Amino acid sequence: AQSVSQHNHHVILSEAASLELGCNYSYGGTVNLFWYVQYPGQHLQLLLKYFSGDPLVKGIKGFEAEFIKSKFSFNLRKPSVQWSDTAEYFCAVNPYNTDKLIFGTGTRLQVFP
Amino acid sequence: DAGVTQSPTHLIKTRGQQVTLRCSPKSGHDTVSWYQQALGQGPQFIFQYYEEEERQRGNFPDRFSGHQFPNYSSELNVNALLLGDSALYLCASSLDAGYEQYFGPGTRLTVT
After folding, report:
1. Closest Cα of chain A to B99: distance in Å?
2. Which of B:30-69 have CB within 8 Å of A?
3. How far apart are CA B42 and CA B103, in angstroms?
4. How far is A104 from chain B (nearest CA, A)?
5. Could you give the CA distance from residue B52 to residue B68 in angstroms, rounded to a whole number?
6. Most buried by CB count within 10 Å: which residue of A14, A21, A32, A105?
7. What value, to the nearest 5°, has the Cα angle with vertex A14 and ends A13 and A19?
8. Residue A83 neighbours by CB under 8 Å, 6+ apart
9. pLDDT tens-place string over residues B58-96
């Protein structure tokens, strides 16, 4: 079955620390890849997306993600986190030519000043 | 430019009842998808509507049904509610399939 794994369920960092959140998916075909963020009390917002081309994609607020096809991974990174990055982060996969997004279980990030 | 809107915000129902949730897509979007997000989980795809027809369906029983209107707004209906249907129901709109989906704030359904 198609699935998305986010191995880090809860991450706690201090401001200015670097962040990397893992995302792996199980699907052998072409995929579109997304990271969504949900800030406290807000709805899901698109952070960044990968459809094709350069496997290193940049999103909003200094986030970036790298698609490694051989590892079926799409890890999210940020060099220096801020308190305002405290949120829940979801990786999602859209198998090509389907209409659905398959989400991981999410990673809760807490950043302390 | 209004984003995706959903109503109501919260809803409490009793087991066995029926519920209807509503969604208005982002301006310019013609495709609406519905997701169920249980506590501590990621959203699970229920189905997607395009041109007033269900285009694809996730692993949900027939108790879950939907509709899309000519103005692209959509409804999600759940019949014979179970306790396990308690969740946040998210609507997302997009410009056709394969494009990024924009999510609404969700409707929190509690079944008692």
Report:
1. 9
2. 31, 33, 35, 40-45, 48, 50, 55-56, 58
3. 13
4. 6
5. 5
6. A21
7. 45
8. A15, A111, A112, A113
9. 999 999 999 999 999 999 999 999 999 999 999 999 987
